[in-house]
Amino acid sequence: MFSHIPISYPLYNLYMLQIILIFALSFENKWTELVQKAEKTVVHIVSLKKNNENPWTNNHSEGSGFMFKIEGSVITNHHIVADSDQIIVSSENGTVFSAELIGSDPILDIAILKIPTQFWQKPLEFRNLKNKKLLPGEEVMAIGNPFGLSSSVSKGIISAVDRFLDTKNHLKWGLIQTDVATNPGNSGGPMFDSQGHLIGMTSGKLAGEVENINFAIPIDKIIYWSEKILENKAIHPMIGLEIKEDYINQDIDSMKKIIKITNMSQSAKKLIQKNDIILAIDGNPVNSKNKAFEIVDNLDYPNTIELLIFRYGVGELRISLNLKPRALDDRYL
After folding, report:
1. Catalytic residues
2. Strands, DSSP E only, in 68-183?
3. Disulfide check for 103: which of 60, 229, 315, 324 has CB 3.0–4.6 Å away?
4. What pairing do the DSSP bridges indicate for beta strands 139-144 and 190-193?
5. CA-based nearest residue to 119, from 101, 98, 102, 103
6. How far apart are CA 204 and CA 186, in angstroms?
7. Could you tell me which residues come within 8 angstroms of residue 79 by beta carbon, excluding any fewer than 6 positions away?
8. Helix (H) or strand (E) holding 11
9. Interior angle at CA 251, CA 249 and CA 257, nearest 5
10. pTM for the whole thing?
């Protein structure tokens, strides 16, 4: 019924190999084009601090930054420009100019700088992380100035999202974890996806005997808190509770995480007890420290918050507490 057409398998395999190579080259060319576009929006930042003990020397810190959505603005990490007496910025083409600190948020670790508008470039398009969530395994790139080496590009993947980080000095939450190589000087630089959309700002890495565990601040958090900075309302709220993740009956085999209260501030002691379990915050169920901190952090201050807790021997209770302003070294929820 059917005529038999001879197929040359070596020729077919060669044809398929050519298609794969063309696709791979076009994908690599796309990254190259994205880098050429993105690097025009990246700047090198040097923060100078006077040394009063020896006026002939200057303390300084270096990092990266990128053009932000407000004309004439650059955004970077707070820790790069904190306590600076002078901020020097250099663009991708080597132009050097001064910048002025508009405002900053030490807790999120972002700062907004004002630069001469003639040196400002239109920023990369921001990715809406609520509509298009980041996924582990997704390829991303970062550009920065590690050790003063301008426009250095590194590539990697998203390792995890919504990371909670408990360091010796402070707490961080809602971070992007990535294996993109970062070094001193990369902080403050942009991280973008395969479409050239900004997804976050490089912020730091784990120190010690670890490799490829780096973190970035999501762009949606940067946008939200930059608006608060400009309104002079960048106050991160907290309840005043120390919490830990645990399992029901402390049985890891139960596979059901709970949030247990281990300590509290003086103002919360009349209403909260140790070992109370937080079931929900303002009607939002919680089973992780990151989720709990994100919910509280997104509330306006001043405000009150309602906790649904479970207390052994009593049952469920609804408790209202006043929010308090968070300091950088606070370890409370």
Report:
1. 79, 109, 187
2. 73-76, 86-90, 96-105, 110-114, 139-144, 152-166, 171-178
3. 229
4. antiparallel
5. 98
6. 8
7. 61, 106, 109, 187
8. helix 9-38
9. 80
10. 0.87
Q: How far apart are CA 89 and CA 64, in angstroms?
A: 9
The label of the residue with tokens 């398009």 reads: 125
pLDDT digits 0-9 by tens, 275-293:
999 999 999 999 999 999 9
The residue count for the chain = 333
Sign of the torsion angle spanned by Cα atoms 77, 65, 46, 33: positive
Contacts by residues 230-233 (CB-CB < 8 Å, ≥ 24 positions apart): 230/70, 230/102, 230/103, 230/112, 232/103
Q: Please check whether residue 258 is in contact with residue 248, taking contact to mean a CB–CB distance below 8 angstroms.
A: yes
Residue 189 near residue 202, CB atoms below 8 Å: yes
Give residue-wise pLDDT tens across range 99-114.
Answer: 999 999 999 999 999 9
Other C-beta atoms closer than 10 Å to the C-beta of 18 total: 10
Neighbours of 211 (CB within 10 A): 9
Residue type, 214: N
Name the amino acid, one letter, at 82.
A
Calculate ∠ Cα 326-221-195, nearest 5°: 165
What's the CA gap between 159 and 161, in Å, rounded?
7
* Amino acid identity at 23: F
C-alpha 286/C-alpha 289 separation (Å) is 8
- In the chain the domains, ranked by start, together with CATH numbers, are 139-230 (2.40.10.10), 237-325 (2.30.42.10)
Instruction: Grade residue 5 by pLDDT with cuts at 50, 70 and 90.
Output: very low
What's the rounded Cα separation, in Å, for the pair 55 and 35?
A: 41
